[in-house]
Amino acid sequence: MTVLDIFNALYTCYGKQHWWPADSPFEVMVGAILTQNTSWSNVEKAIGNLKSQNLLDPDILSRMDQNKLGGYITSAGYFNLKAKRLINFCKWYTSCGGYEALNKQGTGQLRQALLSVNGVGEETADDMLLYAFARPVFVIDAYTRRIFSRIGLVNGEETYQDLRVHFEESLKNHIKQASEQVDTFNEYHALIVLHAKNICQKSPRCESCCISRQCLRKGLNDTQ
DNA sequence: GTCCAGGGTTCGT
DNA sequence: ACGAACCATGGA
After folding, report:
1. Is the CB of A32 under 7 A from strand B?
2. Is nucleic acid strand B under 7 Å from A200's C-beta?
3. pLDDT averaged over chain A?
4. How far is Cα A35 from Cα A68, in angstroms, rounded to an integer?
5. Given CB 3.0 to 4.6 Å as the disulfide criterion, which of A16, A46, A68, A91 pairs with A73?
6. What pTM was estimated for this model as a whole?
7. How far is the CA of A23 from the C1' of B12 (A)?
8. Which of residues 138 to 167 on A have a Cβ less than 7 angstroms from any strand C atom?
């Protein structure tokens, strides 16, 4: 049972997920901040409000009043905090010269730059690197740590960076093309979130949150 | 009514 | 380096 086996099982079971649902890289980044510790359905309403008001633009958001912006994103929760983070992020984004300028940086350098922005932590930065900048970065979240420690592929005590590098290296051994790495990391994180959602919502405290369930037997039989 | 969601920061120890 | 409180809405 390897990291690649699990991916193949999940992909066979659920199919392609087409993440990140957004019309532009900038929309991905806004969504990454808004979805912090928040369900995506609540974020969609907030982004819909911004779009309908033609506010989904870095120059506009960077100059918006915090309370006014909070009124458009209440559904995403933590609206005071997230309004501040969005404005702060957009000020940084525009001052850096926007997407084209940022995309000229190497992945490691761009990660450090994103992490330096208040309100952008490790997972949010990697969401942006993978889904907005198409860099071969594996996003780690609480689901990944929980599911894979139950399988026994990790012990669960690793730091975020240790886990990210471990998943990236295990998959890069089998996938040489950078563009295919991006595609695989893209689908893998989406599949983990989907699978955890399917299992955890039916089971208190996620006690049965393990990958080997009947919904995956078909995929696992193909790869074992 | 309780629990959790596609986390991060700040402030203790 | 690690833990805990804080942020706040909406669906199950």
Report:
1. yes
2. yes
3. 91
4. 19
5. A46
6. 0.94
7. 43
8. 159
